[in-house]
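Reviewer 2 asked us to include a model.

Predict the structure of this chain.
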Amino acid sequence: MYKILTVDDEEMIRGIIRKYAEFEGHEVTEAADGMQAVKLCREQDFDIIIMDIMMPELDGFSACREIRRTKNTPIIMLSARGEEYDKINGFELGIDDYVVKPFSPKELMLRIDAVLKRTRAAAAPSSQNEIVEIDGLKADITARLVYVDGERVDMSPKEYDLFFYMLKNRNIALSREKLITEVWGYDFYGDDRTLDTHIKLLRKSLGEYARLIVTLRGVGYRFESK
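Predicted model (structure tokens):
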């Protein structure tokens, strides 16, 4: 059973999510705007948050930013728009998935399962202490820390996952399908533009070392190192 926080100013949307989530045995708490969501997250813990973007009082992006100050709860964003800017903005804030309205409630439940499986697997302790250094780029994979020329770089959870997977498979051509399967999982329900968006964010985070991520036209990407 998951403890779900649903945040949307449309009561009908909250009701649909509650209906399907409770049918599958989950516990649902509702918030009508971002302010309520932030307050609830300060008072209690949730397994996952379903957050609309356009809301009164405090929009979804601002609420996500406030919640991320103290909690790493997985977040799925809902939006009536599917624009790349919204997706990039959301992923930069550390959201885990993005769903465009109108959506299938059944698909949303599958996405919730997929996100929680991935985040819990990523949080599982590792017995290996793996550190990779390439010129001024240093990655402590076990501690999930990245440094560029001595400066620590903060990434979203999925940026870390993508970066570390590419590092572990450096100098290997990785198809788009392979990256999506290994980083997002076999049960990923998004589209491959999500991969492109995260590659763009990852290159931005790596600064001058973005050159190490090579685009293989018609195939995918390769992380190159000597």
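The chain is about 40% helix and 20% strand. The chain has two domains: 3-123, 131-223. We have added this to the supplementary material.
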